[in-house]
Protein: Hydroxyacid dehydrogenase
Amino acid sequence: MNADVLWADADRFPPSDDDVRRVREAGFGFVPVDGHEVATFRRCGRDAEAVVAWGGRYDAAVFDELPRLRVLARCGAGYDNLDLAELAARHVVATYVPGGSDDEVAEHTIGLLFAVARKVVASDRAVRTGAWPSSRDLAPMARVRGSRLGLIGLGRIARAVAWRARALGMQVAAVDPFQDAEVFETAGVQRHSDLPSLLEWSDWVSLHVPGVPGGPPVLGAAELAALRPGAVLINTARGSLVDTGALVGALRSGRLGAAALDVADPEPLPPDHPLLQFDQVVVTPHSAAFSVPALAGIRRQALDNALAVLTGHPPLTPIPAED
Structure:
């Protein structure tokens, strides 16, 4: 019986003709499916030895429907949606694609910053309704040059953000206990020893740390209360890093000046969600990583990983073993 490569979420992330050709030329069946529901895997996954995974939670309920699974190839750098312990217990190789969209996420972060600073979304909405807002209508508007950007985390993406922000004349600082002094110095980023001091210092706060399934949020009510009045929160990392209820409260009280979010908890946000009732909130649909070259490269490397395992070779980028 031939093995299949099952491509999940094909409705949102369709495979290219080249992706399909590569799999079939390697001697495997190619099965694209919409979504990532357990019922979908029950219907289509009995012969799947590889799954190319985008969004959704992958846990025991899913793996029970994939009895032949040998490799789960995650399309992206984050893997908090994978139950790694369960995969290890089933001797399934888990892979990911680190660095595939660092530039895109960094650019999106800066784009969200400008969307808030220059009231781009509010202005566009007003003009489309026939209005022509004055400076009074759009006040307050921020000057980006000289303002303070605080980064929570100083990994690859945060450093890419810092490089762009410094080019704009921003002051940049970060907190990251896992990076040494040389990393901060090379990036030209001031180091803060703790989160409260960074929050108090920053005009803009941007999150760049991985999500931890079931872990506490990095920014809860106490942390949001520690922000300087009128500060802006940017999140292109994971929605679970911020306590959504506390975020709504901080916006409602005016303590938080605005929020620019590419990620949310939950996703997608329902149309009646409280976050969507604020004019000072800008939301994009978890699209920061998207670009034609980034998605092509991510698809290619995920398939490289899957096909390597299926043909008896080690994967290029296995997910690091948990400590």
